[in-house]
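Homework help thread (please don't just give me the answer)

Our assignment gives two proteins as sequence + structure token strings and asks us to describe the second one. The first is just a warm-up. Here they are:
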Amino acid sequence: MGAPGDIEFDDDVQRRIYRHVERSGTTTIDDVRDEIRVPAPAGSKPARSGTTEPRVRLPPEEFRDHVDAMVEAGHLVERDGTLHLAFDEGTEEYTEGDLTYRIRPARESDRGGIEAAIREVAEEGTSVAGERVAAEIDEQGALLRHNDRESRMFFVGEVAPDEDGDEWSTGEGEIAGWVHVDAPELDKLRHTGELTVGVRERFREHGIGSRLLERAIDWADEANYRKVYQSVPATNETAIDLLRDHGWENEAVREDHYLVGEEFVDEVMMAREP
């Protein structure tokens, strides 16, 4: 799924279904059907007010046809009676030393784990932009966004849930790190995306940050972004070195832009082309 604004729907009903799922993050099929109302057939009993046109739910079979068409078109994913936005699947598994982990697209069910990881890293004073992102997804109640105003994509590093590090059958693992790309739907900025990346301290030095960064850059390239950028405190030398190792360059420095603890810290603005 590429940049926002590139989605085509067969009709207005499908557009409304998509927008409801996009706003909700995840929702049951019954809730969506209850939300999407259409004008009542001719001859139906008028609304009680007598002034508004009666609106009804779609018949189950007709609504099911719309959902099936959107799933088949790659706009939505259906899991256990719920609907989610469909982003390209693709899970990569790695083992570094005694740690096995996956790099994969995030799901709405990851929202709590991602928020916790962002806030844990933010407490170190190393991810001010990430802290803002955590506040945004908490306020909006949705992790992934893809509409006519913005596109927000997350990938996560997920650690195997068992002690041996080689079994995934017992359930989802723990979120070890994240990378996110966020782009506004503004003509003059549509070609750019803001990126944040972070790894929880106890999972560092296993290549998770590098692989998350590479995955996000590949996604931005496929989505036709011309530039991705990130702003970090000058004290976050680990992140700055990581970005430079992956071809990022300094664009500007704003002196004393952040207040971390009791100290003013410079902001280093970095960018690269996908």
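The one we have to describe:
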Amino acid sequence: MEKVNRTNVIVCVTSGTADLAKSFRTILQGAGEVALVHGKEGTDGVDQVFSDSILHIRSLFAEGKNVIAICASGIVIRAVAPLLDSKFDEPAVLSVSRDGASVVPLLGGHHGSNDLARLIAEGMKSHAAVTTAGDCKFSMAIDHPPKGWKLQNARAAGPLMARMVNGEAVSVAEGLDWVKKDKLTLADDAAIRLENSVEKASGADALVYSAQKLVLGVGCERGVAAEHLIDHITKVLDDNNLAVEALGLIASIDVKMDEAAIHAAAKHFGVPARFFPASELEAQKDRLANPSDVVYSEVGCHGVAEGAALAAVGACGSLLVEKVKSDKATCAVGMAVAPFVGDLPGKARGRLSVVGIGPGQSEWRTPEATNRIAEAEELVGYGFYIDLLGPLGEGKSRSDFPLGGEEDRCRYALEQAGKGKNVALICSGDAGIYAMGALVMELLDREADNGGVSDDAKRVELINVPGISALQAASVRFGAILGHDFCTVSLSDLLTPWETIEQRLEAVALGDFVVAFYNPVSMKRRTQLARAKEILLTKRPPETPVLLASSLGRPQENLRIRTLGELEVDEVDMMTVVLVGSSQSRILQNGDRSVGDNGWMAYTPRGYAKRIDADKE
């Protein structure tokens, strides 16, 4: 029953269609869809590049992403054909002509493809070439009802629709106002029936639609197993003959906003989860069937399950099923007067994605990072880092903070997420390495009256997304200087006393580690790198290779190899990462002078020489 919210990927097979793809992305994002643009190598301004069109489209389809390919339909068909299995589970696949005049849904017509085609065609003032029989005959998809409705028996739709297309009469139940009756052959005593029910129903000649107007009000012990809560909900629905398809919402008290089982249940049943403060649940006291003084003493309201269900359905709704207890959970069912669409009652749990974007270039950005940024409502971070996102950050709300405003940006991001928003905190490199990940955790670890954040901020969904760090990028650009044991040291004494840093440098020298220096210098700090050099020279030779890498992955990338003895502080700036080899590190010059520093590269042997030499004997 899990609801799938798929990412839409617009694929440019040729570079000349990039502007058209970006127009599609704007249209989709304007409709609240997540949309990315992927382009073949040589295409500028896209979120991701690829080399083989067939393999890339096939990979996207296998990952469950909706594919909108600007190319001939045959290319797309050949790409996905080996993977075709079930039309009930597969993502939407569309092809679009190079001029954007024709938008053709190829797969998933009644699972989003037709809607996507119409959305794009309307925005481009072009033509959606919808070919599914029901849409052509009845101007609607009988097996794909509008938002707020679900079809209980979708697998019965094909045979019944074929009979309807052939002119067989049908009866339409009250409440199905979205059904376009003018193109149907209607008869009250028709064998084919379109029914409307929140209860489970069946019949070989019936399509049963459920308005998603039921609310599950739930409460549970902290840390209850997701399986327990899901099983309890399922039993309550079964015992009352209620259709899962009629569920529109799961609701609870706000102190349960970070309860994993509730979110697992919402995901399982394919509905949103919403939360209410105790005061709003207590306002339902006179409507409760089973008020409890014990519950009031614990959480400040006389009922969580019934109270949440009633708060969600509003004053005109009703309590359909009173609270049912298990040993660890409670569940009640409310019924609203209309399906839940648009703005929902209560507050959603917010999400903060702390995203490492790598050094900057899109090719080095992980797919998860791209997806989290694409899904976010608001981007927060140092303005330069957000700028590095290029097209991926366009059209989104952004809150820029200056260099040095680390605490402010982390606190702001958490509090924005605490309001129910989906926020991405953008970090360069890896978010957990000398970036904002640790500061976010520190703010969550503190009490609100001791410099921490609000209770709402503490309950957000926190997702840490890894990225390629500067030391990784620098090492591979030069070869493999991190091929053996290594460590990192920040030379900034703004937060760490210099005495502590010196102790760590002594340990690095003694242990003969390859070391990466972060924050080696600033406009004011000019002595720390020189002192680090002095300490390392006490334990390793002056010929030890040193790698200087600036603006990695960006057009102004600068790679230089020096020795420890000749290293000069003035060669280094705030954008430089410094990697100092161990006593075992080596340099070599490659015949290809475009790599490393004019072909000069560096590596640290891991000890395979013994095996290699032994094989020669």
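TA reply:
I won't write it for you, but here's a hint about the kind of observation we're looking for: The CA atoms of residues 164 and 170 lie 7 Å apart.
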